[in-house]
Amino acid sequence: MDTISNQLSIIIAEYIAERHLKLGKDIVFLMSSDADHYGEDFDNSPYGEDARAHEEATANDRRIAHKDLDGVLSDDKVEDLTHEMDNTLWCGKFSVPFGLLTAEKTVSKVPGKKLDGKVLRYSDSYSESVLPLRNTGMGTTAPASYKHWCGWLSAAFYLK
Prior knowledge:
Blueprint: H1 2-18, E1 29-38, H2 51-69, E2 71-72, H3 75-84, H4 95-107, E3 115-124, H5 125-128, E4 149-159
Antiparallel strand pairs: 1-4, 2-3, 3-4
Helix pairs in contact: 1-4, 2-3, 3-4
């Protein structure tokens, strides 16, 4: 991730320079990802499969997100998030740390500037339930129950 994020940050920095864009004005880094995949279908039920378990599991997702994505982005936060991912079934296990590394390296090319992050939203498929789409030709993609749900989140990173 370190090597590829460095290469990608060079490409992004060149794009920004060529177009005379300003970090914080023209450029903000947005990320979204599925968080934990929870329930018997994923063989991931460390808290059980009831209302209390759902509350504990989503609280853990929120704890991870706010601890490592809110505030000034740092190598320590990216490393901590990567280690947190060892104990979860987040889809963003690699994509979120990779995106953070890329954003941080891009901004590091601007002396004295740091990225500040903020979790914009966290929710999950059990709390939101099935999308109210009818007569679209699309089927329900997954059940929404205490035995099968997925968290998701979005975050923004901008110049401090």
